[in-house]
Amino acid sequence: MPHVVLFHSVYGLRPAVRATADRLRAAGHQVTVPDLYGVPAAGTVEEGFALLDKIGHDVVLDRARAALRDLPPETALAGLSMGAGVAGALLAERPDAAGLLLLHGTGGAPDAVRPGLPVQLHLADPDPYDAPDEVDEWQRALTDAGADLTVFRYPGAGHLFTDPDLAEHSPEASAATWPRVLAFLSVR
User: Fold this and answer.
1) What are the backbone dihedrals phi and psi of residue 51, each rounded to the nearest 5 degrees, phi first?
2) What is the mean pLDDT of the chain?
3) pLDDT of 109 higher than 80
4) How far apart are CA 161 and CA 32, in angstroms?
5) CB under 8 Å, gap of 24 or more: what pairs does 35-42 form?
6) 3: which of 61, 62, 75, 79 fits an S-S bond (Cβ 3.0–4.6 Å)?
7) Is pLDDT larger for residue 23 or for residue 107?
8) Which domains does the chain have, with CATH numbers?
9) pLDDT digit string, tens, across residues 146-158
């Protein structure tokens, strides 16, 4: 089973992120969960975006790179919402990654996708941060690049539907997500 690095959402390192890491550990994975902000998590999404603006995207990426520095080349890259963008942004620097696991956002098309790269996306349908036409274009780009892509959409779910501490949590969508995630990671 691959090592997994899990990047948090714009909120920061919330209890739900730690719970996700614990869920993956219970399935036998080694999991690294870096704090890309270095400060307590935000209470609202607006506060989270303010933190990201204050810290800066380049600093967040540098902290993510530092977290990956001593991990095996085949570490699976995973991210929640903003963290999906971080995982995708670092994929070009990690060509041997075991896979790309994206929860709650595409993060935009990665710069480098090797043919056969396993990619799994879990996304609310609709999602306020990923417009349907943008998701369709993202899917085409990854498929054209040769990624082994699987997309799961969750109708009626809120953006961070796996976070039980948020109003947008969907117990049904969350319950459907975790077996799919564990199956994806178990074959890497």
Assistant:
1) -65, -45
2) 95
3) no
4) 22
5) 35/8, 35/63, 36/7, 36/8, 36/12, 36/60, 36/63, 36/64, 36/83, 36/86, 37/12, 37/13, 38/63, 39/12, 40/12, 41/8, 41/11, 41/12, 41/13, 41/14, 42/10, 42/11, 42/12
6) 75
7) 23
8) 4-186 (3.40.50.1820)
9) 999 999 999 999 9
